[in-house]
Amino acid sequence: MKKFLLFTVVILMITGTAFATGNAIAFGTNPASQTMPVQVLLPKIVFIHVDNASHQVTFDFSTMTNYPDTTNAYPWWYLPTDPASPNVNVRVWTNDNDGYTLTVKGDQDFANELPLTDLYYAGAGEAKTANGSAAAGGNWTAFSTTDQTIADVNAKTNGFENYDQDYELKIDGDENAGTFNTVTITYTITGK
Question: Looking at residue 116, what is its pLDDT?
């Protein structure tokens, strides 16, 4: 009798525990199953990667040999000495179905006689502006301390999208010798 009571109490405890915790239990060859909901919450995400963010674009005139000569008037246009084209590798990604905007801006002038607006950007591979040209040729855009739009897209990306950039610098001939301020360029992706 004691064994039967003990066995009954154990069975009741197992059954009570199984039902109290939402577990399923079966005896013999009967299967036991239970359902469980799974939910995925994926917020809108924007992502940007600038490959050369850890090193800088440099215009080192001590290594340049193509200085202005008497046959060409200023301004002269220069490509960076480091790195080679593309000067900046920009990759973006978003799952925002409404799209995204990619912008760029600089933070300050290099010097009073070398303003930020003398630095230009364009899509990688853009031809350098011809020396003596008063205005930048092709698709070159002057940097500013306010955001300039590189891309305005009304859809999510299909994997990563590349917006590699080249830089060129306009020299007017009135710049002083020296090491100028380092300008910080900021690329920003914003979801819509």
Answer: 98
